[in-house]
């Protein structure tokens, strides 16, 4: 189904045991069985380095940011703003002020829909998405459609879970103002041909938003090389805390966009007659931000960088290959999403048991997976399944995790088969 | 395999899950409601035919769901025929309490004792809604509502 791109199959890209030792939660049990955590696509576990950065911040260096005229506040402001620079480097944005802190990718997309969408899109303008989008990249556009009369167009995916490029291209035209697509499917692991998508969208004058929630943890991202206009992701899938997310936007666009929320921190001056907005990035960051969460995200990116995304990608590709082979040998198992270019996610069904029953049974064997529609109900309909079981791989997973999953599926077979 | 799992997935449940009874649409239904569990995507439709006295003359269902949900719906349809609205409502309350472990003084009558095989969901909080969705949907149909959601 997929082939490792860098390391040879079975070649350790790094010392996995040392990496696993960084994640305290991997030492615990679930239902008295060693924890097999295969749900990182929903939210990843946190390494000691992130947990320590968070507690150290609270214990030694906590105050509000951008306000205090005292040492601790200046220090925490420097840490907080330093994280913005860490993120800029991680996705290679041109400017640090193009990095906007949000709560999560969902909020980032809503920010774009609310601010960019309400200002620059009007009746009859078209937004193109795909069938494999997460609800967070569907619903904000539907809300905009209902408010502004835009037209939402949906590009189809193939039975393998790949975007059908000719059909996508056919949807583009002079009315296309925005193309908003996932960089990588959260359900099937498909990596979309975003370079091609961006080139074609730009050719008709449309802007492009990439939902990088899944890709940002597996693939090196260079927003300037890609040329995307917006890129969004959540901190908690990148081994950082929840409650912190990122919107990257090109300076020129962010400058032209009105604020999302009003309040403190986002103003330059306020009188009862008129307020003026702060410069980027603060224009989009009303109120006290998630200070320590941002610092935690910075520590998470430092951690990922210390291993290297290439090594992580090679390790995960090897494991995905192994998982795909092992699972394919399970009787009655169907993998949903078999695109040649995919990463870190295996969704599947068993023809004799429903995904919820599977998840409940393997939970008792200590195996954590996601079962359901994965916030992608339209894709479930497209692939003609009510739900799937999704095993997703993080940088800390190993072959024993896959073996534990396969062994647990035998118990499902025992009950249902 | 754990005892709780064996308790949850008893043979009766697996059998109803595989071969649900009264699993069809009904053109004669007087009351019909759709039930959704948005968290997991389970969906079903309950078809009720009430006679002139408000008794359940016929009941059937269609839907997609896990073994617990389908078995619960199947067993429910077997037990509702001939019961009045009030009796159906009372059964729902007793069944609901059994699944959640709440004690509100609603006891399952002896003639529906077989529903007790579903009491194992109590040990699986995330699965309680799978068992109760058909019953919630049935009550919605009785009350003339079209769609219910467990969230």
List its salient traits.
heterodimer, A: 417 residues, alpha/beta, Aspartate Aminotransferase, domain 1, Aspartate Aminotransferase, domain 2, 2 domains, seven-stranded mixed beta sheet, four-stranded antiparallel beta sheet, 14 helices, disordered N terminus, B: 151 residues, alpha+beta, Sufe protein. Chain: A, four-stranded mixed beta sheet, 5 helices, 4 strands
Task: Give an overview in words.
The complex is a heterodimer of chains A (417) and B (151). With 417 residues, chain A is of the alpha/beta class. Chain A folds into 2 domains: 16-30 and 308-416, Aspartate Aminotransferase, domain 1 (Alpha-Beta Complex), CATH 3.90.1150; 51-305, Aspartate Aminotransferase, domain 2 (3-Layer(aba) Sandwich). Helix content of chain A is 39%, strand content 17%. Chain A contains 14 helices and 17 strands. Chain A has helices at residues 16-21, 48-60, 71-91, 105-120, 139-148, 165-171, 194-203, 223-226, 251-256, 291-307, 309-328, 355-363, 377-382, 399-416, and strands at 29-30, 33-34, 36-37, 99-102, 126-130, 151-155, 176-182, 207-211, 230-234, 245-249, 267-270, 275-277, 333-336, 345-350, 367-368, 370-372, 388-392. The model of chain A is unreliable at 1-9 (pLDDT under 50). Chain B has 151 residues and is an alpha+beta fold. Chain B has a single domain, classed as Sufe protein. Chain: A (Alpha-Beta Complex). Chain B contains 5 helices and 4 strands. In chain B, strands 3-2-1-4 form a 4-stranded mixed beta sheet, covered by helices on one side. In chain B, a hairpin with a 5-residue loop joins strand 2 and strand 3 (56-64).
């Amino acid at each position: 189904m997929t082939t490792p791109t860098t390391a040879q199959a079975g070649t350790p890209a790094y010392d996995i045991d040392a990496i696993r030792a960084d994640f305290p939660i991997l030492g615990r049990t679930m239902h008295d069985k060693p924890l097999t955590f295969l749900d990182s696509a929903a939210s990843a576990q946190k390494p000691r380095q992130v947990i320590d950065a968070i507690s150290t911040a609270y214990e030694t260096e906590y105050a509000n940011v951008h306000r205090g005229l005292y040492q601790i506040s200046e220090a925490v402001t420097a840490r907080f703003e330093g994280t913005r620079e860490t993120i800029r480097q991680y996705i290679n944005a041109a400017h640090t002020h193009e990095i906007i802190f949000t709560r999560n990718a969902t909020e980032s997309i809503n920010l774009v829909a609310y601010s960019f969408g309400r200002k620059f899109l009007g009746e009859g303008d078209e937004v193109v998405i795909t069938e494999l989008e997460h609800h967070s990249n569907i619903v904000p556009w539907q809300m905009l459609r209902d408010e502004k009369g835009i037209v939402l167009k949906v590009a189809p995916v193939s039975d393998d879970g790949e975007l059908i490029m000719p059909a996508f291209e056919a949807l583009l035209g002079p009315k296309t103002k925005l193309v908003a697509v996932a960089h990588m499917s959260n359900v099937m692991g498909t990596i979309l041909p975003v370079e091609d998508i961006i080139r074609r969208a730009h050719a008709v004058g449309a802007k492009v938003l990439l939902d990088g929630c899944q890709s940002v943890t597996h693939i090196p991202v260079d927003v300037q090389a890609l040329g995307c206009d917006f890129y969004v992701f959540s901190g908690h899938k990148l081994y950082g805390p929840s409650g912190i997310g990122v919107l990257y936007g090109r300076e020129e666009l962010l400058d032209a966009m009105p604020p999302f929320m009003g309040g403190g921190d986002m103003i330059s001056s306020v009188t009862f007659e008129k307020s003026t907005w702060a410069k980027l990035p603060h224009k989009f960051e009303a109120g006290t931000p998630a200070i320590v969460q941002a610092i935690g995200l910075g520590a998470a990116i430092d951690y990922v960088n210390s291993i290297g995304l290439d090594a992580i990608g090679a390790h995960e590709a090897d494991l995905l290959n192994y998982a795909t082979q092992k699972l394919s040998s399970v009787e009655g198992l169907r993998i949903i999403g078999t695109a040649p270019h995919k990463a870190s996610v295996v969704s599947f069904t068993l023809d004799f048991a429903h995904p919820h029953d599977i998840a409940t049974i393997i939970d008792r064997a200590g195996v954590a997976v996601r079962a359901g529609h994965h916030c992608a109900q339209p894709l479930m309909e497209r692939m003609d399944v009510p739900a799937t079981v999704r095993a997703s791989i993080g940088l800390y997973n190993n072959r024993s995790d896959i073996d534990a999953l396969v062994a647990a599926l035998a118990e499902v077979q025992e009950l249902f088969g | 395999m754990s005892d709780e799992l064996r308790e949850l997935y008893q043979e009766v449940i697996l059998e109803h899950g595989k071969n649900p009874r009264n699993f069809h649409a009904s053109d004669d239904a007087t009351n019909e409601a759709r039930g959704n569990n948005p968290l997991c995507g389970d969906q079903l439709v309950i078809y009720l035919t009430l006679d002139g006295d408000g008794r359940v003359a016929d009941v059937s269902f269609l839907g997609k769901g896990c073994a617990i949900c389908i078995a619960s719906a199947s067993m429910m349809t077997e037990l509702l025929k001939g019961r009045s609205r009030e009796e159906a409502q009372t059964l729902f309350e007793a069944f609901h309490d059994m699944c959640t472990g709440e004690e509100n003084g609603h006891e399952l009558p002896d003639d529906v004792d077989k529903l007790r095989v579903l009491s194992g969901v109590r040990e699986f909080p995330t699965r309680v809604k799978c068992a109760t969705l058909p019953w919630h949907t049935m009550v919605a149909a009785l009350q003339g509502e079209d769609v219910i959601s467990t969230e």
